[in-house]
Amino acid sequence: MKKTLIIMAMEAEARPVIEKLGLKPVADQQNLNGGFPRYRGGFNDHAIMLSLNGKCPVHQVDRIGTEYAALNTQSAILAFQPSLIINAGTCGAFARDANIADIITSNQPVVYHDHRVALEGFDRFAEGHYPTAYHPEYFAGIPHKLGVVTTGNSLDMPEIDEQRIIANKGMAKEMECAAIASVAALYDIEFLPIKSVTDHIDVEVDNAEQFLQNLQQASQRLSEVLPAVLNNIQ
């Protein structure tokens, strides 16, 4: 049985997936001060753990972004020992590349667009370029787009970030994937991003407004696509 770890940042993104896969909550682990809510179950030939970044106890919001994504991923790897890590979540995209709730995955390395270090060697390290494990048969019968997933810690897109995204041929702009991919690479575990579009990053409507308006639709699409992908993975 294949052990598949699904890393997600937000509870609202994950809830439809948890319900669709029939996953059950795991009791809190006393040795984890980070507070990463986890769910386990089986789906076809997969033993599944889904792990969330958890909530900030001060502000009571999901701990989005790279720091807790990396901590969550490493602690889940140590607890579960997966052979495949899937980062499922939402993203922004250029309107020319994808529609709302379209699925984007990648057969190219995952990059950062806000790690800018103008020193030889450090520049390439800062960008990331962590591998993905895309196989066309995983997405057989599933409409999807292939493009670079690019990560940064801000929802908005200042001009310098846009320049970096375009230079790296980025399609899916989001806030966790490269951090998760970096930990997967550290442990030599296959990694696959699956992103659903919530907002268009090149239109005048505010990104935050678009995100909130389309979050439910994009999350529901993830809950439809993930079981289909798991069915296809042998």
Give the oligomeric state. Answer: single chain
Give the CATH H-level superfamily: Nucleoside phosphorylase domain
Helix-and-strand structural type: alpha/beta
Q: Give the C-level CATH assignment.
A: Alpha Beta
Query: Helical amount among residues, as a percent range?
Result: 25-40%
CATH architecture: 3-Layer(aba) Sandwich
Structural domains: how many: 1
In CATH, the topology is named: Rossmann fold
Main beta-sheet annotation:
12 strands, mixed
Principal-axes geometry comes out as globular
Model regions low in confidence, pLDDT < 50 over at least 5 residues: none
pLDDT averaged residue by residue: 94
Strand content: 25-35%
Q: How many H/I helical runs? A: 6
Q: Quick one: how many beta strands?
A: 12
Order of helices and strands: EHEEEHEEEHEEEHEHEH
SSE layout and pairings?
Layout: E1 2-8, H1 11-21, E2 24-25, E3 38-43, E4 46-52, H2 66-80, E5 84-93, E6 103-105, E7 110-112, H3 122-127, E8 128-130, E9 145-146, E10 148-151, H4 159-167, E11 170-174, H5 177-186, E12 190-200, H6 207-232
Parallel strand pairs: 1-4, 1-5, 5-12, 6-9, 7-10, 10-11
Antiparallel strand pairs: 2-3, 3-4, 5-11, 6-12, 7-8
Helix pairs in contact: 1-6, 2-5
